[in-house]
Design a protein that fits this description.
The complex is a heterotetramer, with two copies of chain A (about 280 residues) and two copies of chain B (about 375 residues). By secondary structure, chain A is of the alpha/beta class. Chain A contains nine helices and 14 strands. Chain A starts with 8 loop residues before the first strand and ends with a helix. Chain B contains ten helices and 19 strands. In chain B, the strands form five sheets. In chain B, strands 1, 8, 9, 10, 11, 12 and 13 form a seven-stranded antiparallel sheet that branches. Chain B has a four-stranded antiparallel sheet with strand order 2-7-3-4, with helices on one face. Chain B has a four-stranded parallel sheet with strand order 15-17-18-19, sandwiched between helices. Mean pLDDT of chain B is about 90; it is low at about 1-10.
Chain lengths: ~280, ~375, ~375, ~280
C-alpha cells in the first residue's frame, strides 16, 4: 500500500464545480471513500444524494478525512490548500492547472514541514487498484498487480497504465507527480515508497524533458533501489528551447535534456522504452 | 545573456524599462532615465547618457543596440539610428535614455526559481557585466532560500562575505537584496536579475540593467503587460491568445493530442517512424467540442499534408473529440487525410460517430502513427 | 471596554484617531472625520457628526465622552464641552469629529496574541457594540491563526459562516479581515480591535471604532508615538523613561532587586512577613554602578521608611551593586535604613565593600526580609 | 540527560559582544564545548585564543555544532535565529530581552515545524551539571543530583538552584523557559523530558503570575507525571493589573492569577512553597 488504501477517507474541495463533481462521481464508482465535499455557502446539501456538502474543511473534519482533492480555480488553490494543511489532512491532491508556481512553492514547503504529502498541482492524482483512487485517472484502465508507476504526465500515464493492463500485468500503485515546475513529490520520494511497498515488484518511471528529476532519480536507483525499474521519457524529439505544452517540459540552462536523462538512466541500468507501448515488454524482460 | 536564456510560454519577459520601473517602485536604485518611442520625445540633455534599445534578447550591446551621447545632437542621432532598426531580427520600437554611470566595479545578482529545490535561489558574483555562464563556478555564490523563512539578512551577509564587499557596500547590498526579494515575491517573478549591478566611483550601488521575468499564471493578481514573446511565431502567438499550448515545427503532419506528455510522446513516435510533425498542439484537460474545432483551425493554418489526432480519453471524452473532428471537417471542408486514434473514456461512442461520418479511427496509438506516416 | 483590559509597560495603546489613521492607510473603511485640539479648528458642518473624546479608557460613551451634533453651533458646543474636561480622571486634549453612520447592525472583530497558542487569534461576533465579555461564548467565533501560514481567506469564511453574514457582507468582511491582519503584522500589534464594526443602512461595513495596541519592543521599526499610559503614576512614567521596570505600591519599604521573578518573590516574602513594599523595581540583567545609583534615586522619590536590596548575582555582579549602594548613600545622603542581601557572583567582594562603608549585608534572603520588616 | 550533554557542541552568535564574550568565558569554565563564535566581519580571529570566530553560522557548520546561544541586540535576533534554523541547529537559545513578540512567535513556530527546540527569548538557558551549560546561569550554584528544575524566571531560578544545592541535594537539569509572553518551551514540554529522564527523580516548577502555562502543567501532571513535582509561584502578592517587570508577568483577562495557579497545583497534588528557600524542604517531604 502506497499512501492510500480502502480506508482512506477523502474530501473534495470544490465538489460542486464542473471537474469536482464529475471526478467525485468517478471516484465513488471506483470505490473511493469520499466522506464529504466542501463548497462555501452550499453547506447542508448533498452530492449525488449521499455525500454531505459542508462550508469548510473545518466542518468536514467531523467525517474524519485524511485526504483531500482540491478542484478550485487557480487563484483560490493556495487558500484551499492552506485550509487543508491547517486542518491536518495528510494527503493534499491538487487537480488544478495554472497555479502560480510561487503558490505551489509555499504550499509544498508548508506541507512538507508538517509531514503532509502534496500531489500535483496539475497532475492526475493517485490510484491503488482497487483500494482507492484520488484524482482523475480513468477507472477502466486498471488491473490489480505488482507494477508501480510514477509519472510527470497525465494522459501519457493512462496510456502506459493501459498498456501494462492489456499486456496482462497489473498495477500496485500509480502516482502522477504533476506537470508543473513545482510539484509536491519527486521521483526519489516515490521510489522510496515503492521500494518499501510489499505489493510492488516492478517500477515504471514516466519522465519528461526539463528539470533534473530523472537524473536525480537515476542516481538514487543506482544506490538504493533493488527492484526492477524501467522508464519512458517524453519529449526526446523536442527541439531545444521549445516549450511543449506545460512548464514542466522546459529545457532550461542546458540541463534536463533528453540526452542527459537517457545517459543517467543507462548508467543506472534502467532501460528506457522508445514508445509508451513498449513498457510492458521491458517489464517482462 | 543571462543565466536563464530559455523561457517560453507561461512566462513573461519584461523590457528593461519596465523592470526598472518596478525596481524604482520597490526602492532599488536605478539610473535616472526615461523611455521614448519617437525622436520628438527626446528631452534636453543635462548629462552624458546611454541610449538603449528595448528588446527582449541578450547580447544587445555587442549587436550595436546600445549607443552613447554627450550632446543633444548625438542623442537625437542615436535615438534616430536605433528606433525602427532591427537588432537580431527584432524591430526596436522604444529606447531608454539614461544618465551614464561612472563605473568603478560591476557585480552580478539574481534571484530565480530552483526547480529541484522547489525554492528560490540567490546567485551573486563579484564578476558582473559579463555573461554569467562565462564566470567560473568558484566565483559564483549560490544559495537556496527557504520559502517558509523567506529572505533574511544572514543570506545577504554570506553573499557579501563571499564577494568581498566593504562594510559600506555590504550595507547597501543587504538593503538591495531585501528589496530584490520583495520584487521576486511581490511580482510573482521567475527571475529578477541585475547585471551589471554597478558600484559607481562615489561608492553607490546602482542597478544598471534590470531583467524581470514574470510567471504568467500569476497575472490575475498583477497589472497587465502588453508584451509578445519575441521567440514565438505569429501562429504561435495566435494560438497562445486562444489558450492553446502550441509550437510550430518544420514537418508536414499536423498533430492534435491531449496532455503535454502524450503529445510529446506522439511527436517522438512520429519522428522514430520518419514522420515529420508540423506542430505540437495539446488540447488540455477540457471536454468541449469547440476547443477541438478551433484546434483544427490553427493546425490547418500551418498547412500540413495530413492531420494526426491522438486522444486518450479521461477528462477529455472520446465522443466529444469525435464530434469536434466531424464538425471541423465540415466547417473547414478538410480534404487532407485525418488519422484518428481514440482510446479511453467513451471510445466506442467516439469511434461510432467517426465511422458514421466516414472517418476511420484506431484504438491503438502505434497503428495510427504508422498509418499517418504513409498516408501521403 | 474591550477583550483586553489590562495592558501595561512594554505596550502602547493608541488613541482611536491614531488607530483610524493606520486603518485608513491599510485600506480599512473608517468614517470621514478629523481631529481637533481646540474649538478654532472645527470645520463647517456638512453632515450630522459624532464628537468623540480621545482618551485611552473604555466606557467613554457611558461616561459622557461622546456627543452628537447636527448644527455648527451644536458642534462647537460639543467640542467646547469635551475639551479640557475629565472623563474618568483623564483630561481630554483632543476630540475626533466624525460623520455619523446610519447603523443597521453592529459586529465585533479583533486579532490578538494568544499566549498559550503562541499565535494570533481571530475573534469575531455578530453581537458587537457591547462589551465583548458580556457576549455569550456560543456567540463568539475564536480561531487560532498559524503564524507560519498567516491569515488566509478560509479563516474569514469560517467566521462569516458562523456570524451568518450575507454573501455581499461576507465579501466585504473577508477583504477587511485580510487588511486587519496586515495591520496586526505590519504594525507589530498586540491587539487590533473594531467594536463596533458597523453595517450601514446601505450595506457597507465600516470600522466605527479602532483599538490598536502596539508591542513597544518593536518600536525600533516603527514610527514613534507620543503617548503616556493613563494607568501609570508620574513616578512610574519617570522610571519607564529611564528604562526601569517599576511599579508603585502602597507600602513603606522600598525594594530594589534583580530579575522580575526574584523581585516578585521578594515582595511576596515581605508581605508574608507583614512588611509592606512601597514599590517593585527590577534592576534587570545589567552590570553597571550608575543603574544602581539611579534606582535609589527613583525609590527615594517614593519616600520609603527603609530600603531592601535583594540581589542574586549572575550577570549583575554583587560588587557592582555594592559599589552602587555606597555611591547612592553618599550622593543622596540616605538616612533611612538600608538592608542588603547579596548572594552569587562576587558576593564576598560585594559584602566587603559594604562592610568597609558601614553597611551590613546578609548572604541569605530570609534573614534580610525579617530584618527589614523590623528596622523601623 | 535532557536536551544537552558533554558532547553538545555549541556556537555563540554575537560572541564578541559584552554579554556574548562574558558568558562564553563562563561556559568554557563550566566545561561546555563552545566550538565556534559567529561575528560578521570578524571571521578569522579567535576568542580567548582558542575558540575560532567565523562570519556566519554557515561557516561555523564545519565545526559540527548542534546548538547555539544567540546574544545579539533585539532587532537582529530574528535574523540570527533564522540563520540557526536554516542551518539545522537543533537547540536555539536566545539570551536577548525585548525581542518583539511577533519575531519570537515566528521563530518558535518555524523552529517547532523543524523539530528544533527554542530556549528563551529572555531566559537564562539550560544547565546539566556537570555535562554542559548553554546560557548565563552562574557556574558555582550547581551540584550534580536528581532534581530537575524548570523556571520562567532568571535570578529566581538561581536562588532556588542554590537553595537546593545548599540543602545537600543536586540538580539533574535546570531549564529557564524565558520570561517573555512568547517563548519556545512550555512547562508541559519540559515535564515530558523530565519524566523520561533517568537521572531526574524530583521536579521543581518555578512559575509566575500571567498566562496559563502553570494551569496546563498542573492538568498534565495529574494525568501523566509519576515523579514528585513541587512548585513556587512568584507574584502571589501582585495587585491585579500591575505588570511586574517583564511581559511574562501580566495578569490578563482574569486568567493567570496566582489563585488560579495555586488551585490548579493543589488539585494536581503539587505542593507550592511560600518562599523560594522552602523548596528543598518540600522536595524532602
Amino acid at each position: 500500500m502506497v499512501l492510500i488504501d480502502k480506508n482512506t477517507k477523502v474530501i473534495v474541495q470544490g465538489i460542486t464545480g464542473h471537474q469536482g463533481s464529475f471526478h467525485t462521481g468517478e471516484m465513488l464508482k471506483f470505490g473511493t471513500k469520499v466522506v464529504a465535499g466542501v463548497a462555501p455557502g452550499k453547506g447542508g446539501t448533498k452530492f449525488a444524494d449521499k455525500v454531505p456538502i459542508v462550508n469548510s474543511v473545518s466542518e468536514a473534519m467531523q467525517y474524519e478525512p485524511n485526504a483531500t482533492m482540491i478542484s478550485v480555480p487557480a487563484p483560490f488553490v493556495k487558500d484551499a490548500a492552506y485550509e487543508a494543511i491547517d486542518n491536518g489532512l495528510k494527503i493534499v491532491y491538487i487537480l488544478t492547472e495554472h497555479v502560480p508556481y510561487q503558490d505551489a512553492m509555499e504550499i509544498v514547503r508548508e506541507a512538507s514541514l508538517r509531514g503532509i504529502t502534496v500531489l500535483g498541482p496539475n497532475g492526475p492524482g493517485i490510484t491503488v487498484p482497487f483500494e482507492s483512487k484520488i484524482g482523475i485517472m480513468p477507472n477502466h484502465i486498471f488491473k490489480e498487480g505488482d507494477v508501480a508507476i510514477a509519472s510527470r504526465s497525465g494522459t501519457l500515464t493512462y496510456e502506459i497504465v493501459y498498456a501494462v493492463t492489456k499486456a496482462g500485468m497489473g498495477e500496485s500503485t500509480v502516482i502522477g507527480l504533476g506537470g508543473d515546475r513545482v510539484v509536491g513529490l519527486t521521483f526519489i520520494d516515490v521510489l522510496k515508497m515503492f521500494e518499501k511497498d510489499e505489493k510492488t515488484k516492478r517500477i515504471v518511471l514516466v519522465g519528461e524533458i526539463g528539470g533534473n528529476n530523472e537524473e536525480l532519480a537515476a542516481d538514487y536507483i543506482k544506490k538504493h533501489v533493488k527492484k526492477k525499474v524501467v522508464a519512458y521519457i517524453a519529449g526526446r524529439s523536442a527541439p531545444p528551447g521549445k516549450r511543449m505544452g506545460h512548464a514542466g517540459a522546459i529545457i532550461e540552462r542546458g540541463v534536463g535534456t533528453a540526452e542527459s536523462k537517457l545517459k543517467a538512466f543507462a548508467e543506472a541500468g534502467v532501460k528506457v522504452a522508445d514508445y509508451p507501448q513498449d513498457i510492458p515488454k521491458l517489464l517482462e524482460e | 545573456m543571462t543565466l536563464c536564456n530559455h523561457w517560453y510560454g507561461g512566462i513573461l519577459n519584461l523590457y528593461e524599462y519596465m523592470g526598472k520601473d518596478i525596481f524604482r517602485q520597490y526602492g532599488i536604485p536605478v539610473p535616472n532615465g526615461y523611455v521614448v518611442s519617437s525622436v520628438d520625445e527626446v528631452r534636453k540633455l543635462t548629462n552624458p547618457v546611454a541610449v538603449k534599445s528595448q528588446i527582449l534578447l541578450g547580447g544587445r550591446g555587442k549587436a550595436g543596440g546600445i549607443k552613447f551621447a554627450k550632446t543633444d545632437q548625438e542623442l537625437k542621432d542615436a535615438v534616430k539610428s536605433l528606433l525602427g532598426t532591427k537588432v537580431r531580427n527584432l524591430t526596436v520600437t522604444k529606447v531608454l535614455i539614461e544618465d551614464m554611470l561612472s563605473i568603478k566595479h560591476e557585480y552580478y545578482v539574481s534571484i530565480a526559481l530552483n526547480r529541484s529545490a522547489r525554492s528560490p535561489t540567490l546567485i551573486a558574483s563579484a564578476m558582473g557585466g559579463v555573461e554569467i555562464e562565462t564566470v567560473p563556478d568558484e566565483k559564483i555564490f549560490k544559495r537556496i532560500i527557504d520559502p517558509s523563512l523567506g529572505y533574511s539578512d544572514f543570506i545577504g551577509r554570506e553573499a557579501s562575505t563571499f564577494m568581498g564587499l566593504s562594510p559600506d557596500l555590504s550595507k547597501q547590498f543587504l538593503d538591495l537584496l531585501k528589496k530584490l526579494y520583495n520584487v521576486y515575491r511581490g511580482e510573482d517573478a521567475e527571475l529578477v536579475e541585475i547585471n551589471p549591478l554597478v558600484e559607481t566611483n562615489d561608492g553607490k550601488l546602482i542597478a544598471a540593467d534590470a531583467k524581470v521575468v514574470i510567471d504568467s499564471d500569476a497575472m490575475f493578481r498583477h497589472r497587465e503587460f502588453d508584451i509578445k514573446d519575441p521567440e514565438k511565431t505569429p501562429l504561435e502567438l495566435k494560438a497562445e491568445s486562444k489558450g492553446y499550448a502550441f509550437v510550430e515545427l518544420d514537418g508536414d503532419i499536423g498533430v492534435i493530442a491531449n496532455g503535454a506528455g502524450l503529445t510529446m510522446a506522439t511527436l517522438d513516435a512520429l519522428l522514430l517512424h520518419k514522420g515529420r510533425p508540423r506542430n505540437f498542439l495539446d488540447l488540455g484537460g477540457t471536454d468541449n467540442v469547440d476547443i477541438v474545432v478551433n484546434a483544427f483551425d490553427l493546425v490547418l493554418e500551418a498547412k500540413p499534408k495530413a492531420i494526426l489526432v491522438n486522444i486518450f480519453g479521461g477528462v477529455t471524452k472520446c465522443d466529444t473529440v469525435a464530434q469536434g473532428i466531424v464538425d471541423a471537417k465540415k466547417k473547414f471542408d478538410i480534404k487532407i487525410p485525418i488519422v484518428v486514434r481514440l482510446s479511453g473514456v467513451h471510445e466506442e461512442e467516439g469511434r461510432q460517430i467517426l465511422k458514421e461520418n466516414g472517418i476511420e479511427a484506431f484504438s491503438e496509438m502505434m497503428p495510427a502513427i504508422e498509418r499517418v506516416t504513409k498516408v501521403f
